Amino acid sequence: MKKTYLLVICCLNAATLANAKTWTITNSGFVFSPATLTIQQGDTVEFVIGSSHNAVEVSQATFDANGATALQTGFATPSKGGKIFPAQLTVGTHYYVCTPHASFGMKGQIIVQNPNSIDEDLEKSEIVISPNPTANLLTIKGLEKVVNADMNIVNANGVSVLNLKNFSSENATIDISSLSAGVYWLTIADVKKYTYKFVKK
């Protein structure tokens, strides 16, 4: 069984690299756009920002305090920006600020997800979303397998369009009629994260 998981993981990793994207973050004055970007593991992020701005990764505590102390192992761009490559964008949340303007609240987050992760807790895999594609309602069954979960839906541009906190229920129906047609990713997270792709008609 372990060998089977290893083979599938290797294949999925290869597929992830083949489908890698480059995302762009810009700025409008002292605001990064988008301020929160959700990407997949293996993607690249390029900052295209003004000459008086940079982007430097910081700890969450520094981020919350609008501080500017760089994270020693974090990424950094010079003024006008630059590319942040996958090796520096590990799975998890990366907090960053513009060093000269952190006190103004010029900061953002990059959330890196791994939708190809395989969980050996097979009960978790019983979570099912339907119908897919869907027009108005998305039904999620099997949520008794998660407790106090956060649910997040992001669009193809990596922008969060819907977020529910501390969710506990056996089944759930989400109204997505207000969303534009396209591809979305639903993440359900308690201790671990589980990501499902769906299409809005």
Question: What this model shows, in words?
Answer:
- The protein is mainly beta.
- It folds into two domains: 21-113, Immunoglobulin-like (Sandwich); 122-200, Immunoglobulin-like (Sandwich), CATH 2.60.40.
- It is 11% helix and 43% strand.
- The protein has helices at 2-18, 60-64, and strands at 22-28, 31-33, 36-40, 44-48, 55-58, 76-77, 81-84, 92-97, 107-113, 128-130, 137-141, 149-155, 160-167, 171-175, 182-189, 193-200.
- The chain is elongated and about 50 Å long.
- Mean pLDDT is 81; it is low at 1-17 and 117-124.
Percent in helix = 10-25%
The CATH topology of the largest domain comes to Immunoglobulin-like
Radius of gyration: 18 Å
Number of domains: 2
Oligomeric status of the shown chains?
A: single chain
Spatial order of the strands in the main sheet?
3-9-8-5-6
Order of helices and strands: HEEEEEHEEEEEEEEEEE
In DSSP terms (H or I, runs of 4 or more residues), the helix count works out at 2
Poorly predicted tracts of residues: 1-17, 117-124
Taking all residues together, what is the mean pLDDT?
A: 81
CATH architecture verdict of the largest domain: Sandwich
Structural class of the helix and strand makeup? mainly beta
Biggest sheet descriptor: 5 strands, mixed
Overall geometry comes to elongated
Tell me the strand percentage band. Answer: 35-45%
Key features of this structure:
201 residues; mainly beta; Immunoglobulin-like; 2 domains; five-stranded mixed β-sheet; four-stranded mixed β-sheet; 11% helix; elongated; disordered N terminus
Topology at a glance:
Elements: H1 2-18, E1 22-28, E2 31-33, E3 36-40, E4 44-48, E5 55-58, H2 60-64, E6 76-77, E7 81-84, E8 92-97, E9 107-113, E10 128-130, E11 137-141, E12 149-155, E13 160-167, E14 171-175, E15 182-189, E16 193-200
Parallel strand pairs: 1-4, 3-9
Antiparallel strand pairs: 1-2, 4-7, 5-6, 5-8, 8-9, 10-11, 11-14, 12-13, 12-15, 15-16
